[in-house]
Design a protein that fits this description.
heterodimer, A: Rossmann fold, 8 helices, 10 strands, globular, B: alpha+beta, Helicase, Ruva Protein, domain 3, 2 domains, 21% strand
Chain lengths: 301, 154
Amino acid sequence: MRSAMKGYHDITGDGGSNVLQQVIDLEGRIAANLAGVRHLVAVGSGKGGVGKSTLTFHLAALCREAGWDVALLDADLNGPSQARMAGVAGTAPLPSDGGRLALPRARAGFGVFSTGSLVPEAEAVEFDSVSHGASHTWRATREFTLLSEILERAEWGRLDALFVDLPPGAERVVQFAELLGPRASFVLISIPSDVARGVVARSAAALKRAGRRIAGRIENMQGYACSGCGEVRPLFRTTEGSAAGAAPALDLPLLGSVPFDPELARRCDLGIPVTERPDLPSTAALKETARALMRAFEAER
Amino acid sequence: MKFLCVPCDAPMKLAEVAPPDRGSLSVRYACPECGYEMAMLTNPFETQMVQSLGVRIGLDASTAGAPAAADEKKDGGKCPFAGMIPGLTEAARDGAGDADAPVAWTPQATARLESIPSFVRPMARTGIEKFARERGYPTVDEKVLDEARDFFGM
């Protein structure tokens, strides 16, 4: 081998396909398609089962009710729940001009993309592959490519906020931060349990280390809203004196606390937004939280 | 990935991409100075990794614009990688869709459908054809697409 042989960085392009440029071009097209979006609201936690999707949907509905133009991207491709909550399961996006995607609208009046619109709940979300038995090596890449395509092609238009409902996984919040770019700001959902708070603290640490913005946190399931007496009662017991010790403090602005409410859960199953039941204790809490979220994001500008 | 002709110290240029064969791509490169040729033959794992990036492999790939389509049909069989190679999707288009479907598509409506992400396409096609059938439209054209969009409030 000659010592003066050219190295990788001495050669421009790759001789034909320009694969790297294709990826860079896609990032540019995503940025252009999101140019009309004022706030990218990434709702995550790291922990599963804390109510991320429920809060994301109802906060989007309440922000819309309060005057914001919003849309919702269900980034949980494998466990999508927004299609059901929005009442658009089985209603696929349609082809619009220029390869764009017209999104189905939730009953609350905003556009939603969710793989739950495309794949029936009884079926697994699958991608074509010839690399059998090795999906652990390529699947995450394929999923982020699909999300990139949706970000690039959906007709977001002019929005005050695009809510992005993230899947669980403390390490994944950073992957989504990199996908969404520096304009995204995160809202982390916790519940009053040290197990959950510990995972949320880990997600917050990962985001801070990556230099990403966290607008605040929301404490979900903060008590139980009894549909019989209307009172909010404690749901989780304190864990003082546990061997593992208390979870690290979540040093994040608290945007709101929302009680566990069976009626809220029922409405999610039925695809009816909480905006239609302003009398519920959870609605009042969610409204306050939505206002705090709007203030926090407006203050970031 | 880049290829270098060591004797000439010249970057090799992509010359041809053969159609996918059982998950393998055959990509031929040539040295612009001495004409030496070599081929890169990918295994299915490598093919899948590239396909997962949503990029195209080929001479006009960088100007293709849209990400790869992944569910085109070729030679009567489902090839998830035809969309990686510019030209193959167009060649395969005649075979796309359900031959038994009573609803026809105009070329313009087909082009609109083909331009959206491949993952979304089958359900979008099904939804539009159902919409057309329910209204007795024998053909899906751009007017039907717009009407469906209005109907669904999109």
